[in-house]
User: What shape does this take?
Amino acid sequence: MSRPEVAAVAADLGAAAFRVDAVADLLGPVAHAALGRDQVRPADRVTRDRVGEPLAALTRLWLLGLPVARGALDAALPSAGTAGAEALGLVEASGVAPDDEVRPLVDLTPYAADDHEWWLASDLTHTGRPLRPDHVLGVGGASTTLARWTPRPRVTRALDIGTGCGVQAFHLATHAAEVTATDTS
Assistant: This one.
């Protein structure tokens, strides 16, 4: 996808330091560890009064699955704004006023391995409802274990069947000249 919104959102996420280490620092060890166990309340408590900070707003929206005010998201994404995130299908806004609610449509997770950093999109996890059969999981323990155990010799082509959120395809791209990733969703 080469739409200008992709580049703008990526630049904004980078400027807001929406990265693994920065999120861990923001949340602190207890809330960060709880979030790793899919327990969002400690992270909610840490970020609730800091939603005016770009990193806290992005964390609440895409890691905790909580709505934020449009003005907070516009401040966190100054180039793309809420409109750019909406155009990419990342969020849904209830209106155009700064206090109008913006809900996440995906989990957008910072991910780092070796010398690489990415943002991975997957279906919403923290919905309070059962997951659909075609739910695309985000990065979990099985994904990171597989990534650690996969040999990384330089290759011309690689294939990722059932890619899900694409984490293995991103890893493949670090040592394969061409990567094909496919999934039923």
User: Anything to note?
Assistant: The radius of gyration is 17 Å. The longest strand covers residues 107-113. Residues 110 and 119 are 4 Å apart (CA to CA).
